[in-house]
Every structure is written in C-alpha cells, then in structure tokens.
Amino acid sequence: MNHINHIRNMYHTKYLISGKTNILPQKNIYQKLILRNLGILSANTKKNILTKRYKFTVAKTVDNKEIVKEHKYEFGLHNFSNVNLYTSRTHTCNQLRTEDCGKSVILCGWVEYIRLNRFIILRDGYGSTQLIIPENASAELYDLVDKIPLESVLMCYGSVKLRPINEINKNQATGMIEVIVDKLQLLNAVDTKLPFQLRKFNKANESLRLKYRYVDLRYPEMQYNLRLRSKLLMKMRQFLIDHREFVEVETPTLFKKTHGGAQEFIVPTHEKGKCYSLVQSPQQLKQMLMVGSIDRYFQVAKCYRDEGAKSDRQPEFTQLDIEMSFTDQNGVMLLIEELLSFIWPSELGKINTPFLRMSYEEAMLTYGSDKPDIGCSTKISNWTKYMSNASNEVFALVLKNSENKLTKKQENYLKTLISTNYPDVKFSLLNIKSIKTFKENLLKIFNGIDAVAVLDDDNISEHDLVAIACGSKYKA
C-alpha cells in the first residue's frame, strides 16, 4: 500500500494505510505523535486499516512544541476494530471504555431515551452509550434535541469523558464514560408513533411484536440471539469442514412429491398438471450423495412442512443436516458430542462429555417417554419382580408427599382416559394414609405381591401417592 502523502497549507490530510509497520516516514515522527494524541493512530500501526479520514491543523506553542490546534472529522487515520470498517462511525455504542477518554468519536444509533433535553441514551445492535449536551451548546443543538422523537436514527460527533463517580452506571458496559456532544446529525426521524415502545418492562404482547418484527429486533435479547445464531453456524462450518473434512452441499428445495411424513407445500409450474414440492428434509438427496461417493456431507438446510399450527411446529425451519457413509450409531453420537463441544458458547460454561446415553427401551420403561426429562427424580419402577405369579408386567410411579393432591374429578378423568386408550391395562391410584392400609390395599389388587420389599426398595412412606399399572410391557 502507499504511504501517507502530503501536507497542504498547515492542514494535514492523512490516508490510512495497512500492511506496513512504518506507515509514516521517520522524518514525520511528530505527525505520528499528533495522530496518536488524537486517538487517530494506534501505537501498533499494523492494526490501522483504510477507512476514515480526519482533517486537522498544527500550530506551535511558545516553547516551539507541535500541538493540534483544531481537527475535523472528515479526514485522517483511526484505529478501528473490524466492526467499524466501511461505516461512518468510529465505535459502536458498546465499545467505549475509560481508556478512550479524550478521544474524538463518531457514534451512530437509535435514540432510546432523552432526559432533561441534555442526556441521550444512544443504542445500536451492540449496546448503548450516554450522550451529554454541554451547557454551552448552541441554541440550534438544544432545539434539535427537543424535537427528536424516540427511536430516531442519530449520528453523534463528540469526545469521550469519564463520568462523575456518583453517575457511574455499573449495569451498563459503557457506564464509566459519557460522550460530550459536539454535533448531532439526524439521519432518520420517526414520523409516526411506533406500534410499541422498546422497554425492558411492560413489553408488548408477542403477537404485536411478531407483526412488527423489524422493531422487535432492536431489543438487546433479540440482537444477542441472532448474533449468537450466526456465530454458532460459522463454528459448525468451521468444525465440520476444517476439522472433520465434511463437504457442504446445497441440495435442491424444489423436489418431487414424496409419500409419508408431513404434508408438503405444492409449487405449481407453467406446465399444466405438473408441480414441485418443497422438501420436508434433504433425506433422499443426501442418500444419493452417499451413492455418489460424497461420504461426509452436511448443509444448513431449509425444510418445509405443511403441518397444523402447533407451538413446536413451523411451516419453515432450519436444521443442520448431516450424513456419513461407513459409520455406525456410536460414530454419529461421537460426532454430535464433539460438534456441540466445539460450538458451545464460552459464556455458558463447558459442557460435560461424553453425554449420558440411554436406549429407547430404558427411556420408555424408566420415564414413559422417548424424550425423557432426565432432571426429573421421579422414575417408573418395575414391580414385576415382586410378583410371585405375574402373567403381565407391573409398573408403579411413586409421587412423594402427594397424597390427596388430585381431586376426585381429576382421578376419575385419569382413570377414564387410561381405560379408553388402554383397555387391557389395569390401573390403580393409592393415597397412602398409613402403611398398614397401603399393604392391605396392595394385596387386594395383586395377590401374591411382596409388599414389604416394595416398601423398602421404593422408599414408600405415608402421604405419598402411588400410581400402578398392570398389563403388557410397553402399554403399562
């Protein structure tokens, strides 16, 4: 890249260069010092990248030292992070810290709050910063602030200053500093009332937020979610391609109609009587890739399913789709463990591997579900071993300290539900008022059961509620 060029009429117009450690010639050492004092040039000049321009003048003091007399924002050098490349700002609203005090900065964002016509909270997708209108500001500046609607888009030119100790906001990343405003530029004013205000408290209902999603996306948690999603997708690709040599292949979303599974979205064509179908998943396509020797495939795939409106169903969703040849169940499980460990956000702490593994049979017999909540301490017990002459399986669920928690109406509803759907299953509910009564009732239901062993092994005590089912293995 070229070196910084010329000085004209006591104005130094500097253009930022990257790739050279010695950006300015040695004879212009004083120019480097001036730029660094302005916060325009970093001591580590390798980080400076062609972006912004500043304009400033140089004057001499009585002791013949070079000082900056004035500077403008139009030209020059600045030490920018990558997030500020190709933009009009010098920092985001979440970047400024105490070490930036004295720097001239440019911020862009949305007006979150205005107080006393002097204090402005400016927010962007990264955070927020407090702006201060100085007491000696022009009447035009005060008049502009007075007329700015909330959520309007501003560009602020100013300098960073340390906040007074009693005004430090420990709950804000930039709470140690504030920006003294030199100039405000209203980029886009809100000309109509917003459908809802962006407040942490008293949020709008979900349907209204979804209707005006572009406004809802300004919430910090929505910004966090989308940015985290983007980073996770990037790390997935990094792990699968760079570390495991998978091939990312984009398979068609327009495909022929397939039988089975969910109902599909039909896409008409210009040919009469012919149509496409939006894919439910890339299942058939990725299997053809395996046939074609693409033995390690993945893609971040869009899937479409014309299902009913359920809380856990959407007509369009994204999934990480993976397929491998010459592998087995353990190989797939190991890949998923390693992938999740690699992409897991550091702020959530490290995840423990290997993951707990459970067979389908164990899940059904212990939790009664193929999607068990392993955090639940209440598990199904198999009482068949306590039966002396069992022709069917017997299972029980002991709910501690739950005696009389169910009303008679609820008990009858539960019994009716089970008898209707599983007529071959014998179902009983026992509220344990006393251990003696429980033993007697248990022997009435199951002749030959070892009631003492049941009490000891399942730690059953008074005031518990016990649900018992007798029938074929999986139905019970």
UniProtKB/TrEMBL annotation:
Gene Ontology BP terms: aspartyl-tRNA aminoacylation; lysyl-tRNA aminoacylation
GO CC field: mitochondrion
Keyword field: Aminoacyl-tRNA synthetase, ATP-binding, Ligase, Nucleotide-binding, Protein biosynthesis
GO molecular function: aspartate-tRNA ligase activity; ATP binding; lysine-tRNA ligase activity; nucleic acid binding
Span of domain Aminoacyl-transfer RNA synthetases class-II family profile: 226-476
Regions crossing the membrane: none
CDD domains xrefs: EcAspRS_like_N
One Pfam entry name: tRNA_anti-codon
PANTHER family: ASPARTATE--TRNA LIGASE, MITOCHONDRIAL, ASPARTYL/LYSYL-TRNA SYNTHETASE
Name the UniProt record assigns to this protein: Lysine--tRNA ligase
Gene name linked to the record: Dars2_1
